[in-house]
Write a structure and sequence with these properties.
Layout (H helix, E strand, L loop, with lengths): L8 E2 L15 H13 L5 E3 L11 H15 L5 E4 L5 H14 L3 E4 L9 H14 L4 E5 L1 H4 L5 H9 L5 E4 L4 H12 L6 E4 L5 H7 L3 E2 L8 H12 L3 H14 L13 H15 L17 H13 L4
Parallel strand pairs: 1-8, 2-3, 3-4, 4-5, 5-6, 6-7, 7-8
């Protein structure tokens, strides 16, 4: 399907199920994709941070994307992360995404190399001209080490280079200022929050939707939150958000003495998905540290408390 403009709603960043040998588990990915579409999500974002894109080979990325596109079968748009260090490498990933049948592309600013706002803008313009698909910018300074400048995003939105933004900066004040500036200058632009914990407030401020990693675990909850917000029932939206905030504590299941927060969060999402029968293995890509039995038990307890098990 073509990607609607502007895209709105709940667009989970889909985890990439792996076998114990580290290969993409295509049957599990198909099952998870089918579950998410059935839950009423409005799109799927493949190969983002939650999808462990940084750990996957180019061939593995293409395998995962092709499986998701084929399973979604046009029922919802599939957004392909084409995240890589520099423009030429990103364009290679964009070509793969076009080949796989993705509906839109998601790219960060260049990273590893140090860049200037002029170079960042040119990076996005070259991607957009090199692949005939809508392009969304991914603002994730914790990983890229560059915060997308607001004037750059505004300029690329107004000139049509960018169709949208996924904001995972954690800077709620900056996001609010961007929303105010955007609404004064263009309507054909989608803004998504990447924060699972403040979706209700972002929607109230004017965001178009959310890209919640926790949506792999409770897609129905985020769809209910979004629908309540669209209906103007902010009390119901807050209640659903509060429940999801409590559930998000499962990302702290890992022992910080032996693993980083990424291993803990991604391991918890995958452990939860396995416990829910959505994927066959909770394996994460090396060298991430896997959750031990005690951590998985903590994940299970959160699922029970949330009414999911």
């Amino acid at each position: 399907m073509s990607c609607p403009a502007p895209l709105r709603g709940v667009v989970p960043p889909v985890i990439t199920p792996l076998t114990r040998e580290g290969e993409v588990d295509v049957p599990s990915l198909r099952r998870l994709t089918e579950h998410l579409v059935g839950a009423g999500v409005h799109g799927l974002f493949l190969l983002g941070s939650t999808g462990e894109a940084a750990y996957l080979t180019d061939a593995q990325r293409l395998t995962a994307l092709e499986a998701a596109v084929d399973t979604a079968a046009g029922r919802v748009p599939v957004l392909a992360g084409i995240i890589d260090t520099t423009t030429a490498r990103v364009l290679d990933r964009a070509a793969d995404a076009v080949k796989a049948g993705a509906d839109a592309l998601v790219a960060t600013a260049p990273f590893y190399t140090r860049t200037h706002p002029v170079e960042i803008a040119d990076h996005f313009r070259r991607i957009r001209s090199g692949a005939d698909l809508p392009l969304l910018a991914y603002d994730i300074p914790v990983a890229v080490h560059t915060k997308l400048p607001r004037d750059v995003v505004l300029g690329l939105a107004v000139d049509g280079t960018l169709a949208g933004l996924k904001d995972s900066s954690g800077d709620e004040g900056s996001l609010r200022r961007l929303l105010v500036d955007l609404r004064a200058r263009t309507r054909d632009f989608s803004v998504f929050t990447g924060s699972e914990l403040t979706v209700d407030s972002a929607l109230l401020a004017g965001a178009d939707g959310t890209v919640p990693g926790l949506g792999n675990v409770d897609a129905h909850g985020y769809v209910r939150l979004y629908e309540a917000a669209r209906a103007g029932d902010w009390a119901a939206a807050k209640a659903e958000q509060d429940r999801l905030v409590a559930l998000f504590s499962l990302t702290d299941a890992g022992d910080p003495a032996v693993m980083g927060p990424s291993s803990s969060a991604l391991g918890a999402f995958k452990a939860a998905a396995r416990l829910l029968g959505l994927i066959d293995s909770a394996a994460t890509a090396a060298p991430q540290v896997p959750l031990d039995d005690a951590a998985v038990a903590r994940v299970r307890a959160h699922l029970v408390t949330a009414g999911l098990l």
